[in-house]
Design a protein that fits this description.
Helices cover 37% and strands 21% of the residues. The protein is of the alpha+beta class and 257 residues long. The protein has two domains: 1-81, Ubiquitin-like (UB roll); 84-257, PF0523-like (2-Layer Sandwich), CATH 3.30.2380.10. The strands form three sheets. The protein has a five-stranded mixed β-sheet with strand order 2-1-7-4-5. The radius of gyration is 19 Å and the shape is globular.
Length: 257
């Protein structure tokens, strides 16, 4: 038996917030096919390409994506990507930690001191800013965050601060100064703000920054990242993956010491 929790617009597709399905050991892809078959004909469509899926509170993109197997008694949460009615932020869970991601339009005054001021203003949450140039997409973002969360849990952070570990992994650098200089926040450059904390404070932070926020991942950074990290097409060709560039970056980030 699998329990399906439906969030936001997903509830409207089934006219309920919970389903129980007598299946187990099926993949997320197989579950989505089954859900589309079960959906009543007179309800709004379920856009399976624009949803986040969590299994027992862990985002599936930090696992095996749509190939992730769902076991008996698992709780599967289905959340539309446009969470909370806004396309300018992402909200998701990894290992029971609530994470908010916003892309901020570069401003003259946005630098490291700006980030420090946000931390003082919004106590109780963890904040880190990554240059938008160094993040490819949702998959890349969540995998790196998952690495840092796992490293903190196992007491193997690259730095004594969780926030710095995230920056170093996106920069693929074991040197703090190098990571800051390359992938850190800079004036007049867009940056991705990664925030961990409770929803009440995260909502306040988003309200504060919403006028400066832009649509996330609107720019394709593939060419920049390939050139910066010297990743060739030949290297990509030998990676048997749907996301070869992302997986190379994730692997490099995972083996930093």
């Amino acid at each position: 038996m699998i329990t399906i929790k439906l969030v936001g617009g997903a509830k409207k597709s089934f006219s309920t917030d919970k389903l129980e399905i007598d299946e187990s050991n099926i993949s997320i892809q197989e579950l989505l096919v089954l859900l589309l078959e079960l959906k009543p004909a007179n309800t709004p469509n379920l856009d399976v390409e624009n949803i986040l899926i969590a299994i027992n509170g862990v985002d599936s993109s930090a696992m095996e994506g749509k190939l992730t197997k769902i076991k008996d008694d698992d709780i599967v949460s289905i959340i539309p990507v446009i969470h909370g009615g806004s396309p300018k932020r992402l909200l998701f869970n990894i290992s029971n930690k609530l994470i908010q991601v916003i892309e901020i339009q570069g401003q003259t005054q946005t630098d490291v001191t700006y980030l420090d001021s946000l931390r003082k203003q919004f106590l109780g949450i963890k904040l880190q800013a990554i240059s938008s140039n160094f993040i490819l997409n949702n998959y890349h973002l969540k995998k790196i965050i998952s690495l840092s969360i796992s490293s903190e849990k196992n007491d193997i952070l690259l730095s004594n601060k969780f926030e710095m570990d995230i920056l170093m992994r996106f920069a693929i650098s074991s040197q703090i100064s190098s990571a800051i200089n390359s992938a850190g926040i800079k004036p007049k450059q867009n940056f991705i703000l990664i925030c961990l904390g409770n929803k009440k404070i995260l909502d306040k932070l988003y309200t504060e920054l919403s006028s400066m926020s832009v649509k996330i991942f609107s720019k394709d950074n593939t060419l920049f990242i390939k050139k910066y990290f010297k990743i060739t097409d030949k290297q990509l060709d030998v990676v048997l993956s749907k996301y070869p560039l992302e997986d190379i970056l994730i692997e490099k980030a995972a083996i930093l010491f």
